Every structure is written in structure tokens, then in C-alpha cells.
Amino acid sequence: MHFNSSVTQISSLPLTGDPTPNDFEIDNKDLAEVPLTRHSGTTFVGDGSFVGLRNNSLVNQKSEELHNTFLAHKQERQLIILQDFPDPDALSCAWAYQLIAQQYDIKCDIVYAGALSHQENIALVKLTGLPAQRWTIQTLKSKDLSSYQGFVLIDNQGTTSQLVPVVQEVGIPIVAVIDHHSLQSDMKSDFFDVRPSVRATATIFTQYLQYGLLTLDSSINQHVKCATALMHGLRSDTNRLMQAQEEDFMAAAYLSKFYDAQLLNAILQANRSKRVMDVIERSLKNRIVQNNFSIAGVGYLRYDDRDAIPQAADFIVTEENVHTALVYGIVHDEDEELEVVIGSLRTTKLTLDPDEFIKEAFGQDSSGRFFGGGRTSAGGFEIPMGFLSGGNENSAYAKMKWEVFDSQIKQKLLRLVNPKDNPIQSE
């Protein structure tokens, strides 16, 4: 994995200290003999220590179900599969799942197929030592997957990962799906906790921690760094807590006892790369604005620069008289010789549902999977180019191909932006 110079600079900032061997020791006693008990809306764990979770029947139910799922899969090995381009919410929650699972003698590998190109994501992994690995399709095919007894989807439902179909092909069963996005597909798993009403998957995992599935200890460096990652994920998916709800604030309050503010600040201070600034410049130059929607195609991007697209959308939506920004481009993976149209939506319009808007605009593939979806204030889409991938050595052909896709995407978006009778945009 390559890190830009800005991350190298911030890595010199003082952190909480280097991890010691004791930081990674987990007490592997049989959790079946340590019952989780609740009393008057307050959670106690094992020895009766206070955890401080409000009386919430759904949280209690889901936490108990997850506890029982872990017990049923003790001593297994699992894959935690993230979306191809994981964000702080996904990365932090995968780490939390891994730490919880260790208590049940379950070993987990956190994997993603795409890249970490957003500077804050790179800084998060580098500065915390978050154990995520990039596995391309070729990497996956060369792995001996027989050692895995199950896989887990966190902050996604399998529609945004290239790895899921391959893993399913070899017969690895799905153990758990934990997400806060709207339902994307009909997947059956031993444990299922998808709550679109929750602003961040980090909030869901913090509730698991409050319930007692893992007792955070501020003297354990790994716990402090995971809490910091969860705080970053929660903060990121709630737009710096500006779109947070009561349960998000409660989760943040709980994490505040354990996270490292200096480490989080170092992660957030990661600078934008020149390539990201170039994509933002392209989006400003190419945008069209209609009915307070700003739509911009940015052409071809390298696979490693994919996260410049959501960053451009984040920037464009701050423009005066714009309530919704859509930025998209063709992302090219030279190693895999694949191309995919990647797009991001950001909105401040309370009556616009990003999930509904994107699904209405781009529809589904032949297997019934939507090309995109969203959550409150944000969404994204990915459209594989399949047979039309490649051939960009011929500049005239590459230009023609981009013009066709650019026109098609704009046409689909403008059909909703300038509707004659469209309930999505009605006031």
C-alpha cells in the first residue's frame, strides 16, 4: 500500500504510544459461562460492571442475537468483507467486529477489493494500525479459502464488493450482515442487523460495546485506537455530527471516554493530494446546474484516485444555490483491465431521499441488484462497463466512449431533476 507525503508528515505527530504485546492479549474464557444480564434498563457484564446503555429493546435483542451467533461459531475463521472502497465507518466497524470475535476464539481477516484513496482513510489505517487488507479478485483466486467457515458483510450488503460473488461461488456461507443503508438485496444470514434509521454503522457497533459484547479498556492501546476509529466513522457518516440523532450522540458520548483526541485530529488533518484537487477543478469546470442540482462528469480517473469523486461532491454541494451535487467519472483499473462508472451524490435538501433518487435514476442489473443507493444526505452508484472496458490507447475512441456515457448519465439524472410529474422532487 502506498501513502502520500502528507500522511507521512502527520505520522510524525505524537500518538498515544506504540502498542505493546500486552495490548493485543484477549481473555479467551468461555463466554457461554459469562452471561449478559440486564437490570432496569442498565447493562451489566459478567462481574456486574456498569456499561451504561439506555433501555432499548431492539438494541438489546440484536446484541443478544449477535452474542448467540458468536457462540454458535466459536473457534471458526471468518472473512469480513467491506465495500470495494471502504470508508471510516466500514473500516472502524470491521475492526470492532474483529476484536469482539476474538473473545469467542473466532479469527477474522478484514478485506476489501478496491483501494484506499481518500487521504483520511489512508491516515486512519496508517496511524491506528487498522488491520485491513486489499484482496483483488486475482488475489482471492490464489488464496486457499477452505480455512474460512463464513464471511461477514459490514457497512454494505454485498452489492458494492467484487469479492462477494467469488466467496459465494466456493460455498462459504454468510454469517452476519450489519449495515445502516437501505435494503439493497435479499441476503439470508445467521445474523442480520440492517437499520436504515441509524446514521452510522459505528453507532450500531458502539451499542454492541455498550451492551457488553466487548468491555473497552483505556489502558489497552488497541482499544483506544479502535474507539478513535469508531469516533471517526461516526463523525464522518453524520457530517461531523451535524446530522446526528440522539443515539449517535449517545454513542459518541460513550466513545469519548476511550478515544484519543490527538490521534483523531492527526487523521483529520491529512491533506488533499494534488490529484484530488485536479478532480475538484474538473468538476467545477464541467458542472451544469439545473433546479439547484449540480451535475459534473470528470472523465477518466485512475483506480487509486476513485475517492476524489466523493470529495469533489462534498466540495460542490457547498456552492451557493446548490442543494444537491452529483459527480461521476470512469474509473480504470489497469491491473485488472476493468472500468466502472463511479458516482457520488451529496445533498442538503431534506425532502430528497438519495437512496430513492439513485435507484430511480439508474435501476437494476439483470440479476436484480441496484446499481447504487444511499442514506441520509449521501449516496453513490457503480456501473460496470463490461465489454466496453479498455481500448483507451486510442484517444479518439476513449473520448467517444466517455461522451456516450456522460450523455447517458446526464440524461437519466435530468429526467428526475426536471420532471413533469415526479414525486421524489415534490415539495
Automatic annotation (TrEMBL):
Lineage: Bacteria, Bacillati, Cyanobacteriota, Cyanophyceae, Nostocales
Gene3D superfamilies referenced in this protein's UniProt entry, alphabetically: inorganic pyrophosphatase (n-terminal core)
Boundaries of every DDH domain copy: 80-233
Native source species: Brasilonema sennae CENA114
Protein name: Bifunctional oligoribonuclease/PAP phosphatase NrnA
Pfam families assigned: DHH
Spans annotated as Disordered: 1-22
Coiled coil: none
Biased composition (Polar residues): 1-14
SUPFAM superfamilies: DHH phosphoesterases (SSF64182)
